[in-house]
């Protein structure tokens, strides 16, 4: 394979990876914003969710700016549950 072709393939691969990571970052930001809203609507002091770990479908561990941690999930009846950790 020619050197210029190898470079093009490398550039295309890097662009695809960075493009996917920016989409993931946008989705992550939306999830953090949604979790912040859910916690506020449930009367939990949080301020802002700064990180979240997805544990399963509709099941997250959220870490707040103020240091509090919460598990936010949907139970079998479809109800959102917030547990302080």
Question: Care to give the gist of this entry?
Answer:
This protein has one helix and four strands.
Strand content: 25-35%
Q: What are the secondary-structure elements, in order, as H or E?
A: HEEEE
Global structural class? alpha+beta
Number of strands: 4
Count of DSSP H/I helices: 1
Low-confidence stretches: 4-24
| Gap from first CA to last CA | 56 Å
Q: List the strand order in the largest sheet.
A: 1-2-3-4
Q: Give me the Rg, rounded.
A: 19 Å
Largest sheet: 4 strands, antiparallel
* Helicity level: 40-55%
What number of structural domains do the residues give?
A: 1
**How would you describe the shape?**
globular
Quaternary status: single chain
Mean pLDDT, to the nearest integer, reads 76
How would you describe this structure in keywords?
single chain; 85 residues; alpha+beta; four-stranded antiparallel β-sheet; 1 helix; 4 strands; globular
What does this structure look like?
There is one protein chain. A four-stranded antiparallel beta sheet has the order 1-2-3-4. The model is unreliable at 4-24 (pLDDT under 50). Strand 2 and strand 3 form a beta hairpin. The protein contains one helix and four strands; from the N terminus they run H-E-E-E-E. The longest helix has 39 residues, at 3-41. It has 85 residues and is of the alpha+beta class.
SSE layout and pairing:
Elements lengths: L2 H39 L7 E8 L2 E6 L4 E6 L5 E5 L1
Antiparallel strand pairs: 1-2, 2-3, 3-4
């Amino acid at each position: 394979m020619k050197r210029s072709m190898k470079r093009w393939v490398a550039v295309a691969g890097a662009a695809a990876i960075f493009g996917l990571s920016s989409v993931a970052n946008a989705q992550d930001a939306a999830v953090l914003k949604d979790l912040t809203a859910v916690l506020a609507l449930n009367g939990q002091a949080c301020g802002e969710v700064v990180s979240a770990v997805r544990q399963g479908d509709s099941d997250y561990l959220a870490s707040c700016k103020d240091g509090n941690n919460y598990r936010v999930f949907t139970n079998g009846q479809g109800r959102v549950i917030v547990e302080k950790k």
